[in-house]
Design brief:
The chain is α/β, with parallel strands linked by helices. It has a single domain (4-298), classed as Aldolase class I (TIM Barrel). Helices cover 45% and strands 13% of the residues. It has helices spanning 9-13, 23-36, 58-67, 82-90, 104-111, 115-131, 154-166, 183-196, 213-223, 250-259, 268-282, 289-298, and strands spanning 4-7, 40-41, 44-45, 77-78, 95-101, 135-141, 171-176, 202-206, 227-230. The protein has a 9-stranded parallel β-sheet with strand order 2-1-9-8-7-6-5-4-3. Helix 2 crosses helix 3 and helix 2 packs antiparallel against helix 11. It starts with a strand and ends with a helix. The relative contact order is 0.15. The structure holds 3-hydroxy-3-methylglutaryl-coenzyme A and magnesium ion. Magnesium ion (MG) binds at residues 12, 175, 177, 205, 207, 238, 247.
Length: 299
């Protein structure tokens, strides 16, 4: 038994951090995450630097990683439009992630586009990315609730997920952007998704605002989910989702599955070392219980 964990710390984990880190620290962090065993690490995003200042060094970061001989096929990058795609392609990025939401209002705040407008951009990006042989992953935000609209619609979820698959995404990650989902809701969303799509092509992306993310992952796993996004040390948050805290911590996810006898392929000791590096650089503590317990045992 195994699960696949997508490490999103370098992108989702850092994008909301006010203290701008130097690029070399991010390179070291990503190399340590590769050494910890992650097969996929979302490295950065090619978005507007004035909107997300922490990601302004995306070009430099990808150049340094390539110079270090990092396998770029393991390092997808978030791309919102053709401009972002062009920058990513010039650097040899092999996999991109496109993103939209079930909520009109969230999309407007996040990417300055309605859902339909977002698909005009995504369609152009996917056409060019496929032409160059890049892999494409899709994200749907606000699946479990929206900071502006409240409850969101399963019909919208089905529509946008289908559209992402139609445009060539090999996998679609469903986001609990503000961490409001709960395990019973996860079950019902899973059943809806399963009745319309190949559930093995769906990933689950929980933020841990209320401390329920791990329970949500367990719930999804029990239903059959096998792919989860998480962030080293539990860093993260979306600048356009006020109050949303970090992604579920990779340490918590790895520890839970390994205790259950489900292989993650990730070395917890090496993962906590990577988290320690980035937390120290940020001057932050980790919210992850597994991280804290692991560090305490080492002292
Ligand atoms: P826009 O303002 O609509 O773009 O931005 P525009 O086409 O009107 O261009 C305006 C200016 O931005 C122009 O510059 C462009 O060149 C520039 P000017 O001519 O005025 O000097 N520009 C760019 N520069 C660099 N890279 C680009 C780019 N595009 C345009 N790619 C856009 C639209 C989406 C780009 C913008 O709103 C943006 O960057 N937003 C930030 C989105 C973001 O990163 N959000 C966080 C990630 S999503 C997330 O966290 C959720 C997720 O984790 C899942 C979950 O938890 O639910 C994935
Ligand atoms: Mg997120």
């Amino acid at each position: 038994m195994s699960v696949r964990i997508i490490e999103v710390g370098p992108r989702d984990g850092l994008q909301n951090e006010k203290k701008i880190l130097d690029t070399q620290t991010k390179v070291d962090f990503i190399l340590m995450l590769i050494a910890a065993g992650f097969q996929t690490i979302e490295a950065t995003s090619f978005v507007r630097p004035d909107k997300i200042p922490q990601m302004a060094d995306a070009e430099q970061l990808m150049k340094l990683l390539a110079n270090k001989g990092a396998d770029l096929s393991k390092l997808p990058c978030l791309v919102p439009n053709l401009k972002g795609l062009e920058l990513a392609q010039n650097l040899g990025v092999k996999e991109i992630a496109v993103f939209t939401a079930t909520s009109e209002e969230f999309n407007k705040k996040n990417i300055n586009a309605s859902i339909d407008e977002s698909f005009k951009r995504i369609a152009e990006v996917c056409r060019e990315a496929k032409h160059s042989g890049q892999k494409i992953r899709g994200y749907v935000s606000t699946v479990f609730g929206c900071p502006y609209e409240g409850k969101t619609s399963l019909d919208s979820l089905k529509k946008v997920t289908q559209a992402l698959f139609d445009l060539g995404c090999y996998e679609v990650s469903l986001g609990d952007t503000i961490g409001v989902g709960q395990p019973e809701q996860v079950k019902s969303v899973y059943q809806t998704v399963k009745s319309h799509f190949d559930s093995q092509k769906i990933a689950w992306h929980f933020h841990d605002t209320k401390g329920i993310a791990l329970a949500n992952i367990y719930s999804a796993y029990q239903e059959g989910a096998r792919v989860f996004d998480s962030s080293a040390g539990g860093l993260g948050g979306c600048p356009y989702a006020k109050g949303a805290s970090g992604n579920v911590a990779s340490e918590d996810v790895v520890q839970m599955f390994e205790l259950m006898g489900v292989s993650t392929g990730v070395d917890l000791e090496k993962l906590t070392a990577a988290s320690s590096l980035i937390l120290k650089a940020l001057g932050r503590e980790s919210a992850s219980k597994a991280y804290q317990a692991f560090i305490a045992e080492k002292v």
